[in-house]
Specification:
Blueprint: H1 5-17, E1 20-25, H2 30-35, E2 38-40, H3 42-51, E3 56-60, H4 63-72, E4 77-79, H5 88-91, H6 95-104, E5 109-113, H7 118-122, E6 126-128, H8 133-138, E7 146-149, H9 152-162, E8 167-169, H10 182-191, E9 196-199, H11 205-210, E10 213-214, H12 217-226, E11 231-235, H13 241-247, E12 252-255, H14 274-283, H15 292-308
Parallel strand pairs: 1-2, 1-3, 3-4, 5-6, 5-7, 7-8, 9-10, 9-11, 11-12
Helix pairs in contact: 1-14, 3-4, 4-15
Bound molecules: 1,3-dihydroxyacetonephosphate and iron/sulfur cluster (SF4).
Residues 41-42, 115, 129-131, 174, 177, 202, 216-217 line the site of 1,3-dihydroxyacetonephosphate.
């Protein structure tokens, strides 16, 4: 879909006036991706947020990503198009629950996926994203027990890849990836027998077992573009189709609908729109505000992660 020129021009003008950068996750609507200065997965966007030197970050993704950008930029303004762009994984794990676990099991190292609230990050020892989770778990001394939270599928995948046995895994799930069913993937493969399969590690184990490649959002895109295949079944959010079609216009990409909505879209990511992006640049609201103490404590595990990989 092509966005009306007036709104895109307004956003570009506001961006200049505000000395703002627009960061967008690959799951954003195509017209938002077209206006973004940087498109990336959660690790790349954290790195770009850390390195940013302007005045305003307009974060088009979900709220926990914008919170991470704010922790890395305490003196900059971070705005989001829609404050209600949440994440089912964030909802699956509260800071109170993590504190209760730590009281009972003080010896555990808390490895938290970036898909957590800033309050949970403040309770964590080190963070990870889907791209670096195996390296982060491997960076924890072997003898130390780990609590990996909150994604059960990523946790099981990391346990398998790292061979780590002393690792407990939280029971949270992504409402998009965890509802991809292997029977639909089998049907898609039967329809496109030449196609290879790429999957995000938040998918269930039976889907991951069928995949030729497992990786983060950007890793999937890179692999699809370079893989020796003209057809690929892509088991992740369909927003990635924008970059895939641009980077490999001669290839065919198939998306499999999940069980929830018969699509493969994240309803939280899709709460953002061009109109809301223009509004947040115009008014500098809604703004991400975090208590200084939480911000200071959450920075420690984020920086530990960025130092590892
Ligand atoms: P990435 O780390 O691959 O960007 O994943 C973030 C996410 O929310 C996946 O659903
Ligand atoms: Fe959260 Fe899943 Fe949406 Fe990613 S796709 S933001 S994990 S609900």
């Amino acid at each position: 879909m092509v966005a009306p020129a007036s709104i895109t021009e307004e956003i570009l003008e506001l961006k200049k006036q505000r000395k703002a950068i627009i960061l967008a996750h690959h799951y954003q609507d195509h017209e938002i991706q077209e206006l973004a200065d940087i498109i990336g997965d959660s690790l790349e966007l954290s790195r770009k947020a850390r390195d940013y030197e302007g005045e305003v970050i307009a974060f088009c993704g979900v709220y926990f990503m914008a919170e991470t950008a704010k922790v890395l930029n305490p003196n900059r303004v971070v705005v989001v198009p829609d404050k209600d762009a949440g994440c089912s994984l964030v909802d699956a794990c509260s800071a109170d629950q993590v504190r209760a676990f730590k009281r009972l099991h003080p010896e555990y190292v808390i490895v938290s996926y970036i898909n957590t609230s800033v309050e949970v990050k403040a309770e964590s020892d080190i963070l990870c994203t889907s791209r670096n989770a195996v390296d982060i778990v491997n960076s924890v001394p072997k003898e130390k027990p780990i609590l990996f939270l909150p994604d059960i599928n990523l946790g099981n995948y990391v346990r398998k890849m790292s061979g780590r046995e002393n690792m407990r895994i939280w029971q949270g799930a992504c409402i998009v990836h965890s509802t991809f069913a292997s029977r639909k993937l089998v049907a898609a493969k039967a329809e496109h027998p030449e196609a290879l399969i790429a999957a995000h590690p938040e998918c269930p184990p039976d889907v991951l077992r069928m995949a030729n490649f497992i990786g983060s959002t950007s890793a999937i895109i890179n692999w699809c573009v370079n893989a020796p295949a003209d057809e690929i079944i892509v088991m992740t959010e369909s927003g990635v189709s924008h970059s895939l079609q641009k980077l490999a216009p001669h290839k065919k990409f198939y998306f499999v609908a999940n069980e929830n909505c018969n699509c493969s879209e994240c309803p939280y990511m899709k709460k953002n729109s061009l109109e809301k992006l223009a509004d947040c640049l115009r008014t500098l609201e809604p703004r991400v505000e975090i208590a200084p103490d939480i911000m200071r404590r959450a920075l420690v595990p984020i920086e530990r992660m960025l130092a590892v990989k």
